[in-house]
Design brief:
By secondary structure, this protein is of the alpha+beta class. Helices cover 37% and strands 12% of the residues. It is built from nine helices and six strands. It has a four-stranded mixed beta sheet. It has a two-stranded antiparallel sheet with strand order 1-2. Strand 1 and strand 2 form a beta hairpin.
Length: 344
């Protein structure tokens, strides 16, 4: 109570409301209407204190090179986000594995007795170790496989380009220039990414919003442009909301696939990862692919999920990811594409 006025003045108080939605309606049933209410008072006090300390650390790093200072701030902010998902009212205790995060499932599940991480001692060191390990793994993936024989002097920053754009408008890529496209698109209605991402967004906005202002122009995440089948967006349409959500998903996926078709080389390959149990989801995805001008040449199942995972139990997510190998259809062919062939 003593810190609250100061935190509000510094915009450190997580005051954003929890909006109505497919997944975010769950906290409302438990009396949580603002994001700060997802935490017990002691949890919230410790996390905002860490956020406050991060801002103090930023001023202490003013003598560092700008790129290094920004990188340190970014990784510490990711560490803080790791801490918030393991220290809130929705965390359960697993006797075999310890505290489970709020996203043990793809929702905000209520637990009768939440677990609490000891934020005064072990929470931050543990979160730092998690981000440190993740950073090490990421650096392995971005290093060229030929690094063992390639002269390091030949490498440049241009080997890796990361952009933030809509998949429907890849304006930096020319027609027929990309030989390999690999995508892991949203799985229909299985995960409402933007609704769940608000849990992180409200903290990241305050920790790294000054470094990446273009990512945080809205109060909460942009849900209107997301390619998922979310009936909550069409709640006012009554019984039509489910059909409208499916159409919205298909139209957005079709627009993304048309753009991939534009940039893919005539002999290039598009690999689509998809995991869903419902035929309707596959029908929608396949319709979008076919409509964009692709034909599916092969499919490969890859076992990616534990059947005991709470993400899988009684959910639409399948235990195996299916890799669809697609190529451009020849423009002059009149051969039809049959759904039965895709289904088999």
């Amino acid at each position: 109570a003593r810190k609250k006025p100061d935190w509000i003045a510094q915009d450190l108080w997580i005051s954003e409301p929890i909006p109505e939605g497919n997944k975010t309606s769950e906290p409302h049933r438990y009396g949580e209407y603002f994001w700060y209410e997802a935490y017990a008072p002691r949890q919230y006090f410790s996390l905002v204190t860490a956020l406050e300390a991060l801002n103090e650390l930023n001023s202490e790093m003013s003598n560092l090179e700008a790129s290094k200072r920004d990188a340190i701030q970014t990784y510490i902010s990711l560490m803080l986000d790791k801490a918030i998902i393991y220290n809130n009212r929705h965390c359960r205790f697993d006797p075999g594995r310890g505290i489970r995060s709020v996203f043990d499932r793809h929702d905000f599940a209520f637990v009768w007795s939440h677990a609490e991480f000891d934020a005064s001692a072990n929470l931050l060191p543990w979160a730092v170790s998690q981000i440190h390990d993740a950073y090490g793994e990421l650096t392995k993936y971005v290093s060229p496989a030929q690094l063992s024989w390639l002269n390091a002097a030949q490498l440049s920053e241009n080997n890796l380009l990361i952009t933030r754009n809509s998949a429907t408008a890849l304006s930096k890529l020319k027609n027929d220039t990309v030989h390999n496209i690999t995508v892991d698109p949203p799985y229909y209605d299985n995960v409402q990414y933007a609704e769940l991402a608000d849990f992180f967004y409200v903290w990241l906005k305050r920790s790294v919003g000054h470094l990446f202002p273009e990512f945080f122009t809205d109060e909460l995440t942009n849900k209107d442009d997301e390619a998922v089948a979310n009936p909550a967006r069409f709640e006012s349409m009554g019984r039509k909301k489910k059909a409208l959500a499916e159409q919205d998903y298909e139209h957005k996926m079709a627009a993304a696939f048309r753009e991939m078709h534009r940039v893919l080389h005539p002999h290039g390959v598009l690999t689509v990862m998809f995991t869903h149990k419902r035929v309707e989801a596959w029908d929608t995805l396949a319709s979008a692919l076919i409509g964009a001008g692709f034909t599916i040449k092969a499919s490969w199942p890859v076992h990616t999920e534990s059947e005991h995972s709470l993400h899988q139990a009684k959910k639409n997510a399948a235990a195996s990811t299916i890799l669809l190998i697609c190529r451009k259809r020849e423009q002059d062919t009149a051969d039809p594409v049959w759904w039965d062939d895709l289904q088999s």
